[in-house]
Amino acid sequence: MSTEDSDKVESRVRDSLQMLGATYEWMPCDPSLADTALFCAHYGISPNRSANTIIVAGKKDPQQFAACLVLADSRLDVNRVVSRLMGVKRLSFATAEETLSLTGMMVGGVTLFGLPPIPIYIDSRVMATDYVVLGGGSRSAKVKIAPSELRRLPGSSVIEGLAIPRQGS
Asked: pTM of this prediction?
């Protein structure tokens, strides 16, 4: 993704946050450290305060998509919970190419803000934190925000058990 494309998507994300009237902190990030484990280690953010936006894709036509937000210390329950929510039996994580085509965002920067109109599922564990850090639309930025602000997103639902905590979390 070019710098110009990154600037455009970051602008779209900031516009979305502004339209929601959300209070947030914009956090510049070294693009080489945007992946969750590297980001958390380098910037001192706990995995239970870092969240991943995962795009899920149905495997049959017409293809359906949803965005799921889970804490970095957990894994998304795609086969049971997301499948039931979407009413689709065969799902997978969207490829990097599908994610970029649908959202204009690269993996490592995907966020809930500025998405096209698709369902948004937020794991209830995210809501139990005082803040969460998620993608800023590009690999060059992150957004630190109170989870209560996420409820303002159109098409969003908080789902109990959307993600399963990893061992030791």
From this structure: 0.93
